[in-house]
Design brief:
heterodimer, A: alpha/beta, Rossmann fold, 5-stranded parallel sheet, about 45% helix, B: alpha+beta, Chemotaxis protein chec, 7-stranded antiparallel sheet, 3 helices, about 30% helix, globular
């Protein structure tokens, strides 16, 4: 069972991400957060195996969430699932310690490609 | 700026609908007929800020937006979609389309949060860069990209 925290301000997108994770395979234990601040609290309360986060969210963005986690000493594997995948954003994500960035729209295959190395 | 062509927007829409909505390609084709008009319009848009500022809008009829939301949520055809899910789902479509349009731009910038309303607010000085009428399972949708000089 892989414990994943999915952070996205869109409930619909969280459902799509969760559905796609299940289509990608593996056995997921899913928790959800509606913004970066909720996700930060969720990790502090119970660190998951991996965090999948949107970038552009109210309250706290995904990149601010990642930086806050690293500043607090959490090394939780972290990936972005975002509608923007520009080289600048990929570089910023990489520099902050993200393992991958999946651009929306995505497929189960695109999840498998980036998740498998994390789980290896 | 002419970096965003109608073909690009159509290709983005095809990819978004294939991956997020229908699970298969070919469900979005060019609209064949007079320019669509709306009886009950619903518009979702995201603003792009930076050296290139503008807006990406997705417009359709309210019943089509409901059908899109049902498809995104994998709900049966006869199930009602609540207002919050409708706004969320339709806004997220515009958000993903806008994010992909942003990736076509040669300059960095930021993307605003998606908005949904019967019509988008006026954007003084805006200019249509490209407008594409599409048919999703025969239902019309219009994707418009605008430049908005000096948008906040």
């Amino acid at each position: 069972m892989i414990r994943v925290l999915v952070a996205d301000d869109s409930r619909v997108m969280r459902q799509i991400v969760i559905r796609t994770l299940r289509q990608a395979g593996y056995d997921w234990d899913v928790r959800e957060a509606a913004d970066g601040a909720q996700a930060l609290e969720a990790v502090r309360a119970d660190e998951p195996d991996v965090v999948l986060s949107d970038w552009n969210m109210p309250e706290m963005t995904g990149i601010d969430l990642l930086r806050a986690l690293r500043a607090e000493g959490f090394e939780t594997p972290f990936g972005f699932v975002t509608s923007e995948g520009s080289p600048e954003m990929r570089a910023m994500a990489d520099e902050a310690g993200a393992l991958f960035l999946i651009a929306k729209p995505f497929t189960p295959e695109s999840f498998r490609e980036v998740i498998e190395p994390v789980l290896a | 700026m002419s970096v965003i062509a109608g073909d690009d927007v159509h290709a983005i829409a095809e990819e978004v609908f294939a991956a997020m909505v229908d699970g298969e390609p070919g469900t979005v084709v060019p609209w064949d007929g007079p320019a669509p008009t709306w009886a009950q319009p619903l518009v979702a848009w995201v603003d792009l800020h930076g050296a290139w500022s503008g807006r990406a809008c997705l417009a359709t009829e309210l019943p089509t937006a409901h059908a899109l939301a049902r498809a995104l949520l994998t709900l049966p055809a006869d199930e009602e979609v609540g207002e919050a899910d409708l706004v969320d789902a339709f806004g997220e479509m515009a958000n993903v389309v806008g994010g992909n349009i942003k990736s076509l731009l040669p300059v960095a910038g930021t993307l605003g949060l998606p908005q949904v309303a019967p019509e988008a607010p006026a954007a003084p000085g805006s200019r249509v860069v490209t407008e594409v009428a599409l048919a999703w399972h025969g239902r019309p949708l219009v994707l418009t990209v605008l430049t908005v000089p000096g948008a906040p």
